[in-house]
Design goal:
Number of helices: 12
Oligomer: single chain
Helix content: 25-40%
Order of helices and strands: EEEHHEEHEHHEEEHHHHEHEHHE
Shape: globular
Structural class: alpha/beta
CATH topology of the largest domain: Nucleotidyltransferase, domain 5
Radius of gyration: 20 Å
Number of domains: 2
Number of strands: 12
CATH architecture of the largest domain: 2-Layer Sandwich
């Protein structure tokens, strides 16, 4: 078993998630406690972004629309890349200190970076952040740029977490047909049938539209618990129109750039009705995922920030007609599941194991990936 740290800064642009796990790149070490409740995989941490830092990242994401080639860094992207690297370094240094760990105790770091644009059909997916600079500062090997190899081999480059989802489910002893739903800025589903077959893809918007709506209308970062949406009424004609978008008609594998949809589609609706409409949009887009399931899931595990949105979870219960469980309720981590996944992927990358599959990204064959950065001897 290797000790790996995973780092994740998602499309919600809220901060850096950090998690430590032990894995051999195939199995995930879990401990079952009372009533088979799973003990945490390892310690976790968080480094939030300030309002100014979020503004920088939003600006860089906007500037990334001008990218033509994968190496392009127009506008604020260079400044944002330096910031992302610095913020992740700070997060790891604080995490190690708080948990009494030395750099030598960690075998590898999985560094996702910050996605600013995702256009797989043009073979472009940019996650800013300097893996070599991070390795040099922390004195720990870093695996970054985990999407590139998949895209160059014809895949979507996303979602990346399904192989971890499956390993965690196997370690937890799950059986039958079930789905694992991660709701970050974008939502993605991993659908596993009773024989262990798997398909995975982005389902549509996650929290991003809801968060942007609340930021614009209320100056808040999110709809806390979905309370604003619960007071509103969804605009059914608008929802029907939104769900006619060509993305929802494409068969998986498929992935989504967070900028394909805008919260401004809610237009002149009241704050409550707009929140209700955008929340319903996320839930109904997830429900469309069942159309592509090899076997209809009887159980769903919901993770990511969306798992804390009570109104969204209520709507998922209604539309999916299956048992809905949050990751936290079974001993997984709703908040840190993706960070744990990137720790797992880093170890798989070190060992040359596949991190993407034809059924998860559409890549032609199982593909490993990631760029290894070892600390420079001069530092």
């Amino acid at each position: 078993m290797m000790r790996a740290i995973g780092l994740m800064s998602g499309t919600s642009l809220d901060g850096v998630d950090i998690a430590l796990i032990e894995t051999d790149g195939e199995r995930v070490h879990v401990v079952k406690g009372h009533n088979n409740f799973l003990e945490p995989l390892g310690p976790t941490g968080y480094r939030g972004y300030s309002d100014d830092e979020k503004a920088l990242l939003r600006g860089a994401t906007k500037d990334a629309e001008g990218v033509v080639l994968p190496g392009d860094r127009p506008g604020r992207l260079p400044q944002a890349e330096d910031f992302v690297t610095e913020a992740h370094a700070e997060a790891v240094e604080r995490f190690l200190a708080e948990n009494g760990l030395s750099a030598s105790a960690i075998d590898v770091i999985g560094f996702h970076g910050q996605t600013v644009i995702h256009r797989p059909d043009q073979r472009i997916s940019i996650q800013i952040g300097d893996g070599q600079a991070l390795a040099d500062r922390l004195r720990i090997p870093v695996v970054s740029d985990l999407r590139r190899a998949d895209i160059e081999a014809g895949g979507q480059g996303a979602p990346l977490v399904p192989v971890f989802h499956k390993a965690l489910a196997e370690a937890s002893g799950f059986e039958g047909a079930f789905g694992i739903l991660n709701i970050g800025g974008v939502a993605n589903a991993t659908l596993i049938d009773s024989k262990g077959g798997m398909v995975a893809f982005d389902t549509g918007p996650g929290n991003s539209l809801i968060d942007e709506w609340m930021q614009e209308r209320e100056g808040k970062n999110l709809d806390d618990g979905g309370r604003t949406a619960a007071r509103g009424r969804a605009d059914e004609p608008l929802l029907a129109w939104l769900l006619m978008h060509p993305f929802f008609l494409r068969r998986p594998p498929k992935s989504l750039d967070r900028n394909w949809f805008s919260h401004k589609l809610a237009g002149q609706l009241t704050t409550e009705d707009g929140a209700a409409t955008l929340t319903a949009f996320t839930a109904r887009a997830v429900a469309r995922a069942v159309d592509y399931a090899p076997e209809v899931p009887t159980r769903w595990i919901v993770a990511g920030g969306g798992a804390r949105n009570g109104e969204l979870v209520r709507l998922l219960n209604y539309h999916l007609r299956a048992e809905i469980t949050t990751a936290d309720a079974i001993g997984w981590s709703s908040a840190y599941l993706e960070a744990q996944a990137f720790a797992y992927l880093a170890v798989r990358s070190l060992k040359g194991l596949p991190i993407t599959l034809p059924a998860t990204t559409g890549v032609r064959a199982p593909t490993t990936g990631g760029v290894m950065s070892r600390p420079s001897s001069a530092n």
